[in-house]
Amino acid sequence: MAEILPPPPVGEPFASYQWDDWYRKVRKTINDGQTVSWSSITGKPVLVEGTRTINTTAPLTGGGNLSADRTLGIDTFTTTTKGAVPAGGTVANTYLRQDATFEDPLNRGVVVTGSRSAGTALTNLLTALASLGIILDTTTV
Q: What is the DSSP letter of 89?
């Protein structure tokens, strides 16, 4: 028949596996005609009280007191808020812009107009490439 363990000391945190140790020490002390205090029992693990909290600041979210399981999260960054980098674009040559969007500089669909024979098409092409940041146009007329 299993023995029923005595209740734990009031106001003292402990894990259930400590009951055996506490019970053995209390039993021995009682059998020896002495008293025992909770503070005299060694080997108790350090526990965190449920009133302790995990506090977060942006971009982390969640947290709270430790009376329950807590989940932490992180927001995706925007032009005004720090955060995690969003998932990448679907094209290999994309890069993350300052406005938190992905861009493929090689796939912008720039339209070049003008006459090849008159040279305006070349001028417009150089202007378009320079606007994409692909070249630095230092040509002269």
A: -
User: What's phi and psi for 102, nearest 5 deg?
Assistant: -95, 145
CA 92 to chain centre: 26
What pLDDT, on a 0 to 100 scale, did the predictor assign at position 1?
42
The DSSP line for 47-59 is ---TT-EE---TT
Contact criterion met (CB below 8 Å) for 74 and 62 = no
Provide the residue ranges of all domains of the chain, joining segments of one domain with +. 13-47, 48-89, 95-131
Nearest to 86 by CA among 73, 99, 101: 101
Do the beta carbons of residue 91 and residue 104 sit within 8 Å? Answer: yes
pLDDT at 96: 79
Q: Whole-model pTM?
A: 0.37
